[in-house]
Design a protein that fits this description.
The protein is an alpha+beta fold. It contains 4 helices and 6 strands, in the order βββαβααββα. It has a 4-stranded mixed sheet with strand order 1-6-4-5, with helices on one face. A hairpin with a 2-residue loop joins strand 2 and strand 3. The chain starts with 5 loop residues before the first strand and ends in a 15-residue tail after the last helix.
Length: 166
């Protein structure tokens, strides 16, 4: 298992509203990943290749993302008018939607499967001239259980005073 953290700057994720497309074919609805979503996946794969990520991290991982929305042209005006809350109404993908899109794009390339994501930390960062997302993927080592807990013979006499005693 790799012990190094993967740090990436990736393009801004596709909106979850544009991720899936539903078509009716011969009276049956079929939902497929959109062309825009496939293009995003290819771009993420290319960025991983440039970052020299050759094999996905095996086992549990921790995923941290910082989503940086695009800085609007009228940012200074908003700052003067609204104060500290100036960026609350910026157009920005929801954090929970961005997680699904990112996990799907990284699955099989940066980590084996999203079922191995044990911890997630996501936050909205400062707006920047070019919208992007910072992604940090860190392996979580498996902790070896304490051997005395498993070497104890459960058939030994226990006292009823200690409900945790075996």
């Amino acid at each position: 298992m790799s012990t190094e953290t993967i740090a990436l700057a990736l393009p801004y994720p596709v909106s979850a509203n544009r991720y899936w497309r539903t078509y009716v074919v011969m009276g049956h609805a079929q939902t497929v990943v959109s062309a825009e979503a496939n293009a995003y996946r290819r771009e993420v794969a290319w960025r991983l290749k440039i970052a020299k990520v050759r094999n996905p991290i095996e086992g549990r991982v921790e995923l941290s993302i910082v989503l940086h929305p695009k800085l609007p042209q009228d940012a200074r005006l908003r700052m003067r008018k609204l104060g500290d809350a100036w960026d609350d109404d910026l157009t920005c993908i929801d954090l929970d939607n961005s997680l699904k899109i990112l996990c799907d794009a990284l699955k099989g390339r940066a980590f084996v499967d999203d079922r191995f994501i044990w911890r997630i930390h996501a936050e909205r960062g400062e707006p920047t001239a070019q919208a992007y997302v910072e992604v940090f993927i860190k392996p979580i080592p498996y902790v070896q259980p304490q051997q005395p807990l498993f070497e104890h013979d459960i058939t030994t006499t226990t006292t009823h005073d200690d409900p945790l005693a075996l």
